[in-house]
Amino acid sequence: MHPVIEEIYSSADDELLASAISPDEGSLIQRILTSHECTRTIEIGLANGLSALFIWDIQRAKPGAHHVAIDPFQTKDFGGRGMANLARAGCDSCTLIEEGSEIALPALLKSGAKFDFALLDGFHTFDQTMVDFYFLNRLVRIGGVIAVDDVNNRSVNRAVRYFATLPSLRIIDSTPFAGPKRRMLNTSKKIASVLLRPLTYAAGPAISFEYLDSSVVRPGLVGLLDSSSMVAFEKIDDDIRSTNWYDYL
Ligand SMILES: C[S@@+](CC[C@H](N)C(=O)[O-])C[C@H]1O[C@@H](n2cnc3c(N)ncnc32)[C@H](O)[C@@H]1O
Questions:
Q1: Rounded distance from Cα 118 to ligand 1 centre (Å)
Q2: Tens-binned pLDDT, residue by residue, of the chain (249 aa)
Q3: Three-state DSSP state, 119
């Protein structure tokens, strides 16, 4: 772990720890950056810069690597600490866009920008997550990766459940998030799912999804999303869905 990351964690208060990514999530990001060809990276939500530092720690060894961080509140709420921490770690290849992602992402798309890796860790409402993911999915090349933090947050979870149904995306990695209550819930849902399987099979997906939560009808996929804190999607193809495309979830 980079010494600046260690130092931030060791002196962090509860507020910083609640907003920043965890060491496990940092490791997930670093696994992806190591195993995939990534030079152009982007993140939504810089804050104190922990996620950007995990990214920089791998990317600094790659010639031409460049990071874009989007955060409208870097100066106002964080006093520039994210950028200052990156500078302390010797990062000289990060561009800060101090605008809301809803403004910055369409502008990047219009400019023709492309990225190999994206981290979504901004404003966590359902609608903002949908907008952010939509644009990141347009901005990331085929073979690139989009990691989403805080998928244990209900609003983020709902948005990610939808994107998990897209045929052009597949989940390739995740970090576990399983407090005892969540584990019990997940186990009981798995049991319910097995008991209800003959019924859901006979009724078909359209009827089953009218009555049951997708975590019971599709326990494999949703179970993973419900027991993770960060999930990474690989973009495996162009998005070629037709206008009426919909998959149940
Ligand atoms: C959970 S924190 C990010 C933590 C950071 N990734 C880390 O590991 O230290 C969420 C960040 O999203 C930013 N944010 C809030 N609204 C935003 C928006 N509309 N666009 C982009 N970022 C936003 C906040 O300023 C905050 O820095």
A1: 14
A2: 889 999 999 999 998 998 899 999 999 999 999 999 999 999 999 999 999 999 999 999 999 999 999 999 999 999 999 999 999 999 999 999 999 999 999 999 999 999 999 999 999 999 999 999 999 999 999 999 999 999 999 999 999 999 999 999 999 999 988 788 888 888 888 899 999 999 999 999 889 989 998 888 888 888 889 889 999 999 999 998 999 998 877
A3: strand
Centroid of chain to Cα 109: 19
**Is residue 19 lining ligand 1, measured as CB closer than 6 Å?**
yes
Cα separation, 77 vs 37, in Å, equals 34
Residue ranges and CATH numbers for the domains of the chain are 3-176+229-235 (3.40.50.150)
209 CA distance to ligand 1 centroid (A)? 34
Question: Cα(239)–Cα(52) distance, rounded to whole angstroms?
Answer: 28
Could you give the 3-state DSSP secondary structure of residue 5? helix
pTM here is 0.95
Instruction: Return the residue whose CA atom lies nearest to atom 15 of ligand 1.
Output: 123
How many whole angstroms from 172 Cα to the centroid of ligand 1? 24
Would you list the DSSP string of 150-195? -TTSHHHHHHHHHHTT-TTEEEEEEEE---HHHHHHHHHHHHHHHH
Helices (H), the chain: 3-10, 14-19, 23-35, 50-59, 81-88, 101-111, 126-139, 154-163, 180-211, 214-217, 219-226
